[in-house]
Amino acid sequence: MADVERARFFESQVISAADLNHAGAYDRDALARHQRSQHLWGIATGLELAGEKRTTPGGDPYVDIAVAPGLAIDGTGRAIVVWEEAQVSDALFDQFNIDTGKAGVFYPVFLEGRDREVAAGGTAVGRCASGGTSRIAEGWEITFGRPGDELDLDLQQTVAVGDGTGAGGWRILLGFVEWDSTLRRFKSVKDEADGVGRRYAGVRAGEVEGAGGRLVLRSGARSVDGAPALEITAADDGLLAFGPQDALGRVTPVLTVDTAGNLEVTGKIVGALAGGVQVESGVATDGMLLPLPAGIKQAAVDDGSVVLQVHVTPHFQEVVLAPAPPANHRWLPTPIECRVEGRRVFARFRWRRTDNGTPDQELPGTCDYTLMAFPSKEGG
Amino acid sequence: MDKMSLIVFEKTGHVLGAFTRAAAPEAAVEPAEVAGEGVWIRDAESGERLFTVEPQHLKVETVDRRDAVLLAHLRFALVDGLPQENVVISGIVLTATQITVQIGPPAPAVLKAWVQVEGGPGGDRVVLQVTIPQGANSGNAAVTFNPGDYTVLVLVPGFRTFIDPVVPVP
Asked: Which of A185, A163, A161, A194 is nearest to A173 (CA)?
């Protein structure tokens, strides 16, 4: 078919079953094209797997698993509706013959859409009637995969760009089950295994436009108190705000950026120069390198992404030197040098007794330092 | 209590550098981060670099702050996790065939001195260990030197870091 065709009826037309089927398919196929091209496949709502602990008559524990009602959109644009809670059958799992016999192995559980002819027939009139059922149930089934099958879900074959949903069979990951090979029952259930978990439906768009001067991205439903959210608002001359939302969906900002580029953060900025200057200070002795602020590495200085500014002054503090001076006298220091090259400290003092009773002593010294690390605009 | 970090010669515990950090006083730091190619030991009078003790011989330990260590770190060694001020050794003698480390008092136990000798006519660098037997006042090791002036660094456990910028070999 070169074009998408829609049905058009006229007076006195003899309408065939094909015409009516085409009229119904037009809307369904258009919706499927929209679902798969402007949305990302996954769970739209519900469909959680929940386990209920049970015990066999012999006292062995197992879980009964059920899938909650919900809706998912598969990669062909098919909407899969699970109307009511349904058991996940351990007998069905057994039929898949995928048990590895090993403990601690989790098997992916999939939901697949599946068309099914409904037994109730239509009313056929006349000798030429072909008969058959008049309803197709857009059903679903639960299937299981081998460990690792959940990694290949993006490799599933989709349909041609103009087509409808096809016959079904697209796998949507609902969670994982652990199998007890001895009891031949489920042992446990969870949403995620090895970092792979349930995938939720999304939106594919090159641009999203807010309404009423506001656009909000929420990590949960609007009514979920504390769920992190991101808001762009035209109010107050424009602001991007991130923070938890309250039960009414209002964002309490912990980070804001205004349209002038001013950033405000109520928490702590962590990481190498994430917030600008980082400072370390203290005392350091001759011959060593001044320590860098935590998180700053010499490699960042070497590649120019971090610029250092250093200030040192002689660290004056009385030292007990031998021979001890007589009463009312002391050793007094005079700095010979106190500087840094790169981060290397050069500090030497000359110590002189105030009674001039002994020769001067020249010794390695100590300096007070302040080292600041700035992000470089040019480097890195 | 305030903390200070010590750059320590790993084999003998001698303190070769000391520093404090106000922002992260106890953060872990690798020797190379505060020593670079090595801690420099300089002639206090001329400022000339005499030795570079490379980071593979060093460790950094953070202990309670003690100002005396920060002001005169070369007098100290880290013993059982605490800085301990040590006494000076008597000296060192180099001959054409031998090096002798003289500690003065009898060694309370067998002491293994770490000796670094640099200089001479060829600009040689010799690093060796000299064993001082228990009860002895000195220890020696056979090594060949050409006549000339050498610079010597000696680290004897229980004694102060010893630096002599000019040790002649007749």
From this structure: A194
Tokens at residue A108, please? Answer: 């992916």
Indicate the burial class of A346 (C-beta count within 10 angstroms; 0-12, 13-18, 19 or more). Answer: buried
User: Is B143 an interface residue toward A (CB < 8 Å)?
Assistant: no
Residue-wise pLDDT tens digits, A181-216: 999 999 999 999 988 899 999 999 889 999 889 999
Question: H or E stretch including A32?
Answer: helix A17-38
Quick check: ipTM above 0.85? yes
Find, among A140, A137, A20, A128, the residue nearest to A74 by Cα.
A140
For testing the chain A interface, which of B30, B71, B161 should be mutated: the one with the most A CBs within 10 Å? B71
Point out which residues pair with B46 in neighbouring strands. none
Interchain proximity A281–B22, CB inside 8 Å: yes
- Encode B5-40 in three state secondary structure: EEEEECCCCEEEEEECCCCCCCCCCCHHHHHCCCEE
A289·B35 Cβ contact <8 A: yes
- Measure the CA dihedral A79/A83/A84/A90, to 10°: -40
Nearest CB neighbour to B21, from listed A282, A285, A317: A282
pLDDT in tens, A272-301: 555 578 899 999 999 999 999 988 889 989
B3 touches A at CB < 8 Å: no
d(CA B26, CA B43) in angstroms, rounded, equals 31
Q: What is the chain B residue with the closest CA to A337?
A: B47
Of B33, B40, B72, the CB nearest to A363: B72
Q: Are B18 and A284 a contacting pair at CB < 8 A?
A: yes
CB A49 within 8 A of CB A15: no
What's the confidence (pLDDT) of residue B70? 94
Structural tokens at position A195: 């970092």
Q: In chain B, which residues have their Cβ closer than 8 Å to the Cβ of A364?
A: 42, 44, 73-74
Across the interface, whether the CB atoms of B71 and A319 are under 8 A apart is answered yes
Cβ neighbour number for residue B73 with a 10 Å cutoff: 25
**How far is Cα B100 from Cα B150, in angstroms, rounded to an integer?**
14
Q: Which residues of chain B does A352 touch, with a Cβ-Cβ cutoff of 8 Å?
A: none
